[in-house]
TrEMBL record:
One of its GO terms (cellular component) is cytoplasm. Its EC number is 3.6.1.-. InterPro entries: G_CP_dom, NA-bd_OB-fold, P-loop_NTPase, Ribosome_biogen_GTPase_RsgA, RsgA_GTPase_dom, RsgA_N. Residues 63-223 form the CP-type G domain. Zn(2+) binds at residues 247, 252, 254, 260. Its cofactor is Zn(2+). It comes from Halobacillus andaensis. This is Small ribosomal subunit biogenesis GTPase RsgA. GO terms for molecular function: GTP binding; GTPase activity; metal ion binding; rRNA binding. One of several proteins that assist in the late maturation steps of the functional core of the 30S ribosomal subunit. Helps release RbfA from mature subunits. May play a role in the assembly of ribosomal proteins into the subunit. Circularly permuted GTPase that catalyzes slow GTP hydrolysis, GTPase activity is stimulated by the 30S ribosomal subunit. Binds 1 zinc ion per subunit. Monomer. Associates with 30S ribosomal subunit, binds 16S rRNA. The gene is rsgA.
């Protein structure tokens, strides 16, 4: 019996990494009976007669798990957003950040295609970088032709399990291919008529990149706040959490309540107005969400 980590799940097989060797395993029938599905990222005990004939016997308790993409025990999310094609979208970035924060993952923001950015757009991009760094998020500017910037991204990946998130066309797969050319992950050009990329990633797989494990993750680009409760939303904005104890009311939702420290922060510009406006939009979205039965 040995312990390993599932790095790929495909067609009922689980590929378990143990001491640098990958074993192809099936799950035991007991998992089906208990309705447990092993996930990529799971730490498992397994038994294998050969490299192709193994069985997963048990799954260790998960630190966390995502539903879309189905993956467990993730340390951080690299949120890739581009400056052009598609244009930088702060609302979408904040949506990703809320989703990632709600799963208790460390977000790292990568702004890609800096080498394709028009001169007049640069001050605005740099201002957004300043705002998000002030909140406490690492913000990496990425250009495929700048090795120093790619080295910075590699340093963030070392010794961690990372998911990559971002809308289609921002260059997630291209970035992984540049970091490790042997991967040859399929990428699609932006579909001009739709103005967005086509989904090319078919399954979740952890790739060994820069001394860490990185998942190229399909399904992360349609984002709703399915399970997030209204009371939890403010916890996903670190700059709100920093001042919320100064709100007059405990459990303040920072919307209409008097003597709210978050609203005061927006007024004195210590909290970015666009972040607060997005928060209000998300509040409405959660309020209007149809109940699930």
């Amino acid at each position: 019996m040995a312990t390993g980590k599932i790095i790929k799940a495909l067609s009922g097989f689980y590929y378990v990494l143990h001491e640098g060797i990958v074993y192809q395993c099936r799950g035991r029938g007991v998992f089906r009976k208990k309705k447990i599905t092993p996930l990529v990222g799971d730490i498992v005990e397994f038994q294998a007669e050969t490299l192709k004939e193994g069985y997963i016997l048990s799954i260790e308790k998960r630190e966390n798990e995502l539903v879309r993409p189905p993956i467990a025990n993730v340390d951080q999310a690299l949120i890739v957003t581009s400056t052009v094609n598609p244009d930088f979208n702060p609302l979408l970035l904040d949506r990703f950040l809320v989703l990632v924060e709600s799963k208790r993952l460390q977000p790292v923001i990568v702004i890609s295609k800096m080498d394709q950015t028009e001169e007049e757009k640069l001050p605005s991009i740099m201002e957004y970088q300043r705002i998000y760094e002030t909140i406490g998020y690492p913000v990496l500017l990425s250009s495929m032709h700048d090795q120093e910037k790619l080295n910075e991204i590699e340093r963030q990946l070392a010794n961690k399990t990372t998911v990559i998130a971002g809308q289609s066309g921002v260059g997630k797969s291209s970035l992984l291919n540049f970091l490790d050319p042997t991967l040859d992950i399929e990428t699609d050009e932006i579909s001009e008529s739709l103005g967005r990329g086509k989904h090319t990633t078919r399954h979740v797989e952890l790739y060994n990149i820069a001394g860490g494990l990185v998942a190229d993750t399909p399904g992360f680009s349609s984002l709703d706040f399915g399970d997030l409760q209204l009371e939890e939303l403010g916890e996903c904005f670190p700059e709100f959490v920093a001042v919320q104890d100064d709100c007059k009311f405990r459990g303040c939702l920072h919307v209409k309540e008097p003597k709210c420290a978050v609203k005061a922060g927006v007024e004195n510009r210590s909290i970015a107005g666009h972040r607060y406006n997005h928060y209000l939009q998300f509040v409405e979205e959660i309020k209007n969400r149809k109940p699930r039965y």
